[in-house]
Amino acid sequence: MEKVLPLLLLTLLGFLFPFTFSSSTFSNCFNVQSFGAKGDGVTNDTQAFMSMWNAGCTEDTGNVEFLVPRAVYLLGPIQFRGPCKARSVFFNMQGHLKATTDLRDYEDAWIQFRDLNNLTVDGGGNGTLNGQGWASWRFDKCPEIKKCKILPVSLKFVGCTNTSLMNIKSLDSKFFHMGVLDCHDFKASRLRIKAPEDSPNTDGIHIERSSNVKISSSVIRTGDDCISIGQGNSHITVSGIACGPGHGISVGSLGRYPNEKDVNHLIIRDSVLTGTQNGVRIKTWADSPQTSNANNMIFSNIVMNNVRNPIIIDQEYCPYPYCANRVPSSVKISNIMFKNIRGSSKSKIAININCSKGVPCQNINLHNIHLDIVGEISGSSQCKNAQIHYSGTQIPPPCVTELKSI
Ligand SMILES: *[C@@H]1O[C@H](CO)[C@@H](O)[C@H](O)[C@H]1NC(C)=O
Ligand SMILES: *[C@@H]1O[C@H](CO)[C@@H](O)[C@H](O)[C@H]1NC(C)=O
Ligand SMILES: *[C@@H]1O[C@H](CO)[C@@H](O)[C@H](O)[C@H]1NC(C)=O
Ligand SMILES: *[C@@H]1O[C@H](CO)[C@@H](O)[C@H](O)[C@H]1NC(C)=O
Ligand SMILES: *[C@@H]1O[C@H](CO)[C@@H](O)[C@H](O)[C@H]1NC(C)=O
Prior knowledge:
Number of helices: 2
CATH superfamily of the largest domain: Single-stranded right-handed beta-helix, Pectin lyase-like
Keywords: Cell wall, Cell wall biogenesis/degradation, Glycosidase, Hydrolase, Secreted, Signal
Shape: elongated
CATH topology of the largest domain: Pectate Lyase C-like
Number of domains: 2
Protein name: Exopolygalacturonase
Oligomer: single chain
Structural class: mainly beta
Family: Belongs to the glycosyl hydrolase 28 family.
Distance between the termini: 95 Å
CATH architecture of the largest domain: 3 Solenoid
Number of strands: 30
Strand content: over 45%
EC number: 3.2.1.67
Signal peptide: 1-22
Bound molecules: 2-acetamido-2-deoxy-beta-D-glucopyranose
């Protein structure tokens, strides 16, 4: 009897241990190759990704892992939709995903994570999303026509709470590389984003209607804005970004559509822009269909290298050759700080604060600005319809303000 009990215990433990062990590592890991993915770069693996997701997302456990091992997977549009039963979802994206190129298969996104909580997407350094945008850029009419068909965003997060995205590469997106919409508590870091300088609408990361978003430590070289912060956002922090080529880091464009919400509490800091069209920019459309507010923003510790418009507020934004009525923008901009911004400007007008005649900018602050002009002795500032406070170094010198009805 004395010998049976330990044996029984051992047997029991033998049962229990592999079980507890496997439930925290193995049985919770869903490997796309176990669901039929070929990973040969030629076979359409969309169905295998879908099957993996459907199996893992319904698994009622603490933490679930989806594993995409290193290989090249051809993938059409796909939605990883939640909520999942697990408390957290870990998407281990080591593979190289290649988008199919027939636009007829797509709606607004290639890879979409939707309605998820506690999601981590980690590319481990080599995980890559290749949008193969070269095949569709010529169908993008958005640079020419306002009412254009939008091409698919490579990686879109919609309605997610507590998300981390890291160590991932995005190449040649068809449209934006990444979109973050209606998300709260979203962190992205160590991203490498790349598309040719002349590729249309390949914004790096576009954020909209989201809060508590942090984007950090990333390199973005693309054809449009490196980061664009659209309507409805609050508490967004962008830091440690190397941007360029591209159109810079932008707030906006705002005031294009009806029912847009306010944008506030933004911090853009500790970043370097090189050879970009703009540095830090706030852009709002003329003819905005309704009023909204854009306020409480800090742009600080930013280095400009040969940037065309280092500091710019443009409230008559209209990228098209003709723009209808030209009613002044009704987005009200206030409480903006630009501080410790230095480097070189490619155009003579290093600072351009061009605000709305309808709702002039209030409380714009410039502190310690040193922008030299490439190949020229000195540059200048321009401003319109803005109340501006200057302190510390001011190179170029403050503009002679053309103040109207403030
Ligand atoms: C790839 O597979 C998915 C899912 O089976 C299918 O809907 C899609 O049409 C396929 N795409 C191509 C280009 O074969
Ligand atoms: C997310 O994770 C936190 C912390 O582990 C947990 O309290 C919460 O219930 C999780 N959310 C969901 C929807 O499972
Ligand atoms: C966020 O999700 C991670 C895992 O994905 C979890 O560890 C963390 O506790 C969650 N945080 C909150 C506040 O729920
Ligand atoms: C990434 O890929 C390179 C080249 O294939 C390899 O040398 C390196 O070890 C990989 N890094 C990781 C973290 O897998
Ligand atoms: C303001 O923007 C309008 C429209 O783009 C432009 O015509 C005007 O010259 C700009 N003013 C300044 C001071 O840049």
